[in-house]
Amino acid sequence: MEHFGVFVPSYLAVSRHGIYYFRWPMRAASMERRSSSVKISLQTRDPKEALRLSRALSYLTQQLFQDCTERGMTFEEIRRLLTTHFSERLEQHKLTIAKSGRISHLDRSAYENTLVFATEAVQDGTSLFPGGNDDDFVARFIERYGLTLQPGTNTHTTLHTELKRAHRDYCSSVLAYDSSLDSYQFENKIDDARSVDKTAAVPPYTSLQKLIDRYTQDSNLGVQWTPKTQHEKADHFALLIELLTANVIRPAILTP
Question: Which residues, listed in sequence order, are joined to residue 38 by a DSSP beta bridge?
Answer without folding.
Answer: 24
